[in-house]
Design a protein that fits this description.
The protein has one domain. It is globular, with a radius of gyration of 24 Å. Helix content is 17%, strand content 39%. The protein is α+β, with helices and mostly antiparallel strands and 289 residues long. α1 packs antiparallel against α3. The relative contact order is 0.29.
């Protein structure tokens, strides 16, 4: 009988250890969203190509604790009549907020770098469909959508930073949904999200959104910064789309992020201690019988 009790106890301990090792970092969903487009501006976000230079747009979000980001969405404009199959590659980058990952002092080619994305991306967080580190699907939201203003080529160093934008554009409003095949794990901090879309013809315009909210509880995102843009002629600097270039802003961009919060080590230790304590208590009770 005593041998049977020892066998049962060993099974309980083994089960406890399995539970401890199987505890995944994910304990709660987290979701950030800027909502739907307000149609105020569309800004170019494309890689370099034959006769074109790379142009990047970035908007910010905050993580209150370490997070594994598994999914993202963003909304933009394709040229009128372009099939969804014209999207040949999607790349996502994440940036710290300046002055991290940056040369300090900066070059002085823009009015300010305060609250801009860093000079360079977080290399370990880059995901790209061509590399197999993300998959994407695209869906047409509105086949005939007009955005009031655009920024495509007018991205200049000071003192020529103000262009007013390049006017309205009409195309297909498209939502691109991304799954990171390798989740992006980031510690709690303030970041910029930068999607880039390669088309077989034409350029992708990332559409603007109202001031973002915390979708989990509907409260305003009080730490919100604005959207920034740069091209290869301006890099590593960034310009504020609404404040520097068009004087209509500040703007945000349409995107959402979802994933799972990672518990602090103290939380996992507490879980483990509780389970081990429970086993010890059960052992005492078991052998007193």
């Amino acid at each position: 009988m005593r041998n049977l009790k020892h066998k049962i106890l060993r099974l309980v301990i083994l089960a406890t250890l399995l539970i401890l090792t199987a505890v995944t970092p994910a304990v709660a969903d987290v979701f950030f969203s800027t909502g739907v487009t307000d149609g105020l501006i569309g800004t170019l976000s494309r890689p370099a190509g034959p006769g074109t230079i790379q142009t990047e747009t970035a908007d910010d979000f905050v993580l209150s604790q370490p997070t594994s980001i598994t999914n993202a969405t963003f909304v933009g404009l394709l040229p009128s009549g372009a099939p969804l199959s014209s999207i040949t590659n999607v790349e996502i980058e994440f940036y710290h907020v300046f002055p991290k990952d940056s040369v300090v002092p900066p070059s002085g080619n823009v009015l300010t770098r305060a609250n801009s994305p860093a000079d360079v991306e977080i290399g370990s967080a880059t995901r790209e469909s061509a590399a197999g580190t993300l998959t994407f699907t695209a869906a047409i939201v509105n086949p005939n959508f007009t955005v009031a203003n655009t920024v495509v080529n007018g991205i200049n160093k000071i003192p020529n930073q103000f262009t007013g934008g390049e006017g309205s554009a009409t195309g297909e409003e498209v939502q691109i949904s991304v799954v990171f095949t390798t989740p992006v794990v980031l510690p709690d901090d303030h970041y910029f999200f930068r999607p880039e879309v390669e088309l077989s013809s034409g350029g992708f315009l990332w559409l603007s959104a109202p001031k973002p909210i915390n979708a989990a509880d509907g409260t305003p995102f009080l730490q919100d910064l604005q959207s920034w843009i740069r091209n290869d002629n301006l890099a590593p600097d960034w310009a504020r789309i609404g404040t520097d270039i068009t004087h209509q802003g500040p703007f945000n961009a349409v995107f959402s992020l979802s994933g799972e919060k990672i518990p602090e080590p103290s939380t996992l230790l507490l879980i483990g201690s509780g389970l081990i304590g429970l086993v010890g208590y059960g052992r005492k009770k078991f052998f007193r019988k």
